Amino acid sequence: MAGTPIRSSMRGGRSRRSMADINVVPYIDVMLVLLVIFMVTAPLVAPSIVNLPTVGNAAPQEQTPPVVVNIRADGRISVRYKGDSGASQEDTMTKAELNSFIAARQADHPDQPVVIAADKTVQYDAVMTVMSDLKARGVKRVGLLVKSQ
């Protein structure tokens, strides 16, 4: 066996490999054809007509300025609001006076918002008490005023 030649599986020195790459050229051709079809047919599709209202037809909404309840660091409460004459007024009052003022104000202007502006040193409990009193008097929109940085 020492003299027998080793048979090579490679005849002619070349081997056949299987091709593992995917040919993507046909896929690109199909995609380009689809793109052309969509570009041609897109303008032919009739858009639906919607009759939108114009700004001139819309009824203007009245903007009622909010009542601003200031809670100071010493616990005093002041209320800033626009009176019936349109002039801005500010009154200092107790919690009981605030409750009666808000009840009367809500009877005249039921959708008027109330904004609470509290000093940053005021305890949160005082702010929550005023908020719950406002909600009990029927105020629908209560906000907190903060200083922007």
Automatic annotation (TrEMBL):
Pfam families: ExbD (PF02472). The keyword Repeat does not apply. Gene3D superfamilies: 3.30.420.270. It is a single-pass membrane protein; Single-pass type II membrane protein. One of its GO terms (cellular component) is plasma membrane. One of its GO terms (biological process) is cell division. It comes from the Bacteria. NCBIfam families: tolR. PANTHER family: EXBD MEMBRANE COMPONENT OF PMF-DRIVEN MACROMOLECULE IMPORT SYSTEM, TOL-PAL SYSTEM PROTEIN TOLR. This is Protein TolR. It comes from Burkholderia humptydooensis. The gene is tolR.
